[in-house]
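Appendix B. Chain record.
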Amino acid sequence: MSVIYNISVFTYFLAIRIASLFNPKAKDWIEGRKVKDWKNLKTDNRRIVWFHCASLGEFDQGLPLMEAWKNEFPEDFLLVTFFSPSGMKNYHKRNHPADAVCYLPLDTPSNAREFCKSISAENIFFVKYEFWANHLSEARKSGARIYSVSAIFRPNQIYFKWYGGFYRKVLNRFDHIFLQDQNSRLLLEGVGIKNTSVTGDLRFDRVFENKMRASKNDILDYFLQNE
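C-alpha cells predicted for this chain:
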C-alpha cells in the first residue's frame, strides 16, 4: 500500500506541475519548493520545535499553541511549514512567534528523510489535518515526539473504511492526538486508536485572544452609546 501511496504523491506532483503552466497558485507551489530554506536554518544549536499547517487557516488555529510554547520555552527554535502558497504568502500579516517559515517538501521517502534529518526536531505538531505518511514515518524513526492538535474526523474518511489500513497506521505514528470533539474520539476508538484527548478547537482560543487584544477607541464608544 505504501507503494500506491508514493505513486499517488508523485502523480499529484505531476498534476500540479502541469497546472503550474497556467495556474498562478500552482506555479507558486512549484517555485516555492525549489527554495529549500530548511537546509540552512541558523538555530544557534537551539532545540527545534516543528509546527506544520496546511494553510493560513491552520496557522491561525495553531498560533495560540505556538505562543504558549514560546512563552514556556523561549529558547526553543520554532519552525513552521506550510503545504499551501496561501500560508507562505500571508503568514507575515500575523503577529507570530515563528523563528523560521518554509514550505513542506513533497512527501516522498527521500524528501522526508532529508528534511527530518536536516531539522532534527524534538517535538512536532501537525495542526488539524495534513497526515503525510513519509514525513510522519521519518519523524517517528528520529525519536521525535509527534502530536496532532485540533484534529477532527468524519465517518466517511478513508481511515474508517475497510481498505484504510495503511492510513490508520499513519495515525498510529502520533504519540497523542488532541481532538476537537467527542465524535472524533469515538471514531478513532472504533479502529483501535486510543491515545486521544478531546480538547476543543484552538480557533476559539484565537478568537478570545483577539477579543482581549482589541484596542479601545473613545470616539467609537461615544458614537455607539453602548449599542
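Further analysis of this model is presented in Appendix C.
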